[in-house]
Write a structure and sequence with these properties.
InterPro entries: ACAD10_11_N, AGP_Transferase, Aminoglycoside_PTrfase, Kinase-like_dom_sf
CATH class of the largest domain: Alpha Beta
CATH architecture of the largest domain: Alpha-Beta Complex
Strand content: 15-25%
Pfam families: APH (PF01636)
Number of strands: 9
CATH superfamily of the largest domain: Aminoglycoside phosphotransferase (APH), C-terminal lobe
Helix content: 40-55%
Largest sheet: 5 strands, antiparallel
Order of helices and strands: HEEEHEEHHHHEEEEHHHHH
Protein name: Acyl-CoA dehydrogenase
Radius of gyration: 20 Å
Strand order of the largest sheet: 1-2-3-5-4
Distance between the termini: 48 Å
CATH topology of the largest domain: Aminoglycoside 3'-phosphotransferase, Chain: A, domain 2
Structural class: alpha+beta
Length: 319
């Protein structure tokens, strides 16, 4: 792979030798590698490679690159794209190469390093970054609209298994759907764990593979489900950083638009239900024998947790 990487990089940064190539922990759908590209003059570029097989769920590498460039132009902190290709010929799979940004992604480490002021600062930066993403121009790069409610309804149906809570929730949500808002660029997985945080706060947004055209409420709600608090109390419902109300207010200030709290609750219910279906899907991978894994089985046990959260939201519990 080192020689192949050097060939890929030659047209964009010149002749280099690849050093310190190592696989990183990270996403389930794609593999991430860190490496150094060293020029003949001794210059050193610290880079990241993302690679993985194409599928029908995730954005292609060239689309990911184009979206990140649009988001950067709108003011969102993202890695600088070096090159990307959907063609598997060079590295065996499609790939994206970007610069390496120092910082931390592991949420519990981030939480331990933050005091109250640091959490509030990071929360505001997350709101400001989402506002920038939602301002980005999504036209002309191949983005498709996606409907979260029907998509996850279909995913659950494909498994041939459901729960009474999930069925009631899907039907209630379909019957009580609020009017659609203006379509925007949506990250699709904006949450703690997909952000690089350094001493100054939010350094970069990662993992754009679920990007699509949708509503701003999708990203706002996904950031606020219980799973992405990583054990923080409900008072820190927005990513374990602060209250949901303070997060939404910061977004309103940054975006210059109002966030309807009732519409947000509907989308928070959708997001929680989405996580429940994901948990059931991960359990099915283990139960079917496709991927025997204690970790996947444990994630499956969280289905009941999401059922509780969905019922609480449908019955008017606090957010």
């Amino acid at each position: 792979m080192k020689d192949a990487l050097a060939e890929v990089l030659r047209p964009v940064i010149g002749d280099v030798t690849v050093e310190n190539l190592s696989a990183l922990t990270g996403g389930a759908s794609r593999t991430t590698w860190a490496f150094d590209a060293v020029g003949s003059d001794g210059s050193r570029h610290e880079l990241i490679l993302r690679t993985g097989p194409p599928d029908d769920v995730h954005a292609g590498m060239e689309l990911e690159a184009a979206v990140q460039q649009r988001a950067a132009a709108a003011g969102a902190p993202v890695p600088h794209i070096i090159t990307a290709s959907n063609c598997p010929a060079a590295l065996g799979n499609p790939y994206l190469i970007c610069n390496r940004i120092p910082g931390e992604t592991i949420v519990r480490r981030i939480a331990r390093a933050l005091d109250d002021d640091g959490r509030q600062r990071l929360l505001r930066q997350c709101a400001q970054t989402l506002a920038a993403i939602h301002r980005a121009d999504p036209s002309g790069i191949g983005l498709a609209p996606a409907d979260q409610l029907s998509e996850w309804r279909d995913r659950l149906d494909e498994m041939g298994d459901t729960t009474a809570t999930f069925e009631w929730a899907f039907r209630w949500l379909a019957a009580n759907r609020p009017p659609a808002t203006a379509p925007r660029l949506v990250h699709g997985d904006f949450r703690m764990g997909n952000l690089i945080v350094d001493d100054t706060g939010l350094a970069a947004v990662l993992d754009w593979e679920l990007v699509h055209i949708g509503e701003i409420y999708e990203d706002l709600a996904w950031f606020c489900i219980r799973a992405w608090r990583f054990g923080a109390p409900v008072a820190l419902g927005a990513g374990g950083l602060g209250s949901i109300e303070s997060f939404l207010s910061a977004y309103e200030e940054a975006a210059g638009t109002a966030v309807d709290r009732d519409v947000f609750r509907w989308w928070l219910t959708v997001a929680t239900l989405r996580w429940g279906v994901i948990c059931r899907f991960q359990a099915e991978r283990h139960l079917s024998g496709q991927t025997p894994s204690v970790e996947l089985a444990a994630i499956g046990r969280r289905v009941s947790e999401t059922e509780w959260d969905v019922l609480d939201l449908l019955e008017g519990g606090p957010i």
